[in-house]
Write a structure and sequence with these properties.
By secondary structure, the protein is an all-alpha fold. It contains 6 helices and 2 strands; from the N terminus they run H-H-H-H-H-H-E-E.
Length: about 150
């Protein structure tokens, strides 16, 4: 190993660039492995905590939390899935109280007759949320082009 190889490996390590398989970089990796703290030790915890605080300082506190909870008793899509050969009018704005109650009872009956529809509908909702809100393409296993709501 020459001084030039070692200097080059040190410069790459300082700049965060992977130096490759050269003798200098292999020497630095060996030293790093020998001098690193053991997993699950207090030193490793301290190092992880310092990294976490530095990421919080750079990016801010992680504060994103949301839930997806569709109401199975009031889902128009369940009515459509249960009656695929029937045309169902989604615009029932002028329903009186009796019709509204009958509609609610019908949808409740559908939930018990077709329990898999609730799971199917929930899975569809999760797919939509993951793709369009989170911004993750499950088929490609990578982010979507628009990046979702969170960028």
């Amino acid at each position: 190993m020459t001084t030039r190889e070692l200097t080059s490996a040190v410069n790459c390590a300082h700049n965060g660039v992977v130096a490759g398989l050269g003798v200098g970089s292999m020497f630095l990796r060996t030293i790093n492995t020998c001098c690193k703290s053991m997993c699950h030790s207090n030193e490793a915890s301290k190092e992880a905590r310092q990294r976490m605080f530095s990421m919080i300082n750079m990016f801010g506190l992680p504060a994103v939390f949301f839930m997806v909870t569709p109401d199975d008793s009031n889902i128009f899509r369940m009515k459509v899935h249960a009656n695929p050969n029937e045309h169902i009018d989604p615009t029932n704005e002028n329903m009186d109280k009796q019709e509204c109650l009958m509609e609610f009872q019908f949808r409740s009956k559908l939930r018990f007759e077709y329990p898999g529809l609730s799971a199917f509908d929930f899975e569809s909702m999760i797919d939509i949320v993951v793709k369009h809100i989170v911004g993750w393409d499950d088929e490609k296993h990578s982010h979507t082009e628009d990046g979702g709501v969170f960028g």
